[in-house]
Target: Melibiose/raffinose/stachyose import permease protein MelD
Amino acid sequence: MSDTLARPIGAARPRRVSTVRRQQNRAALFFLLPGCALFTLCVIYPIFSSITLSFYNWDGMTAKTFVGFANYVELFQTDTFYTALKNNLLWLVLFLLAPPLGLVFALYLNQHVRGIRAVKSLFFAPFVLSGVVVGLVFSWFYDPTFGLLKMIVGHGIPVLGDPKLVTFGIIFAALWPQAPFCMILYLTGLTGINPEIVEAARMEGAKGWRLFWYVVLPQLRPATFMAIVLTVIGALRSFDLIAVMSGGGPFDSSTVLAYFMYDQAIKYYREGYSAAIAVVLFAIMLVYIVFHLRRMLREER
Model:
C-alpha cells in the first residue's frame, strides 16, 4: 500500500521541477526579447544594410544602381585610402600608450592620503569633456601665433598645418582624455585585488617591481583587457578630434578611415562608396576583437 502511494508522489517531483524550469526559461526569454530586438534593430540590421549598400552606387536621393565590387576596386586604388589606413595604424600604435599611462596614474592615486580625492577629480576631469571641447582647447594650445606651445618653446610651431606633425598632434590631444579613462578601469581593478595574496607575497620576500609584476599585475588582467580593447576601438573609430582640429588636412594628411567615410558620404553624396569604407573598417575591428576574445576565452579555460 505504501509503495503504491510513494510511486506517484516520486513521479510528480520531476514533473514539477521540469515545469518550474520551463517557466523560468520562458520568463528569461521574455526579459531578453526587448534587448535582443533593440540590438538587432540598432546593430545587426545596420551592419547588413551597410554591407548591402556597399555594392550599390547611390547619392542618397535617386534610385540605387548595382555596381558589384566597383566601390571596393576604386577604394583599393585610391591613395587617400592608404593614407587613412596608415594614420589608423599610427593611431593604434600610439594610442596604446593610454593603458600604461592610466595604470601609472591609478597606482599613484590608489593611496589613502589627505586630499587625494581632489587630485583624483583633476585627473578625471579630461575624460568628462566633450571631444569637441578637447579639440578646441588643443587647437588653441598649438596655435603658432598665441598658443601656449609657442610660449613654452619660444617660437610658433604650425603643428596642425604641417603634414608631418598634424597626426601626432591630434593623437597627443586624444591621449589626454583616454588615459584617465584607462585610469578609472585600473582603479576599479585595484579595489578588487586580494590583499591576502599581496601580504603572502611580501612575507615571501617579494617587494617593489617583483611584487607588482608577479602579484599585482596578474590580478589586473581583466582591467588590462578592457583597457586595451576599448583603446583599440577608440583608435580605429577616431573622428571627432580630426573633424575639429584639422578636417582631415592639410592635403588629407591627417584623415583616417572614419573621417574618410564621413567625407565621402556627407560632402560628395557617395553613400555606396562610404559604405564600402565602413565595411573595411568594420572588418579590421572584427578581426582584432575576435582575436582578443579567443585569447581571453582560452586563458579562462
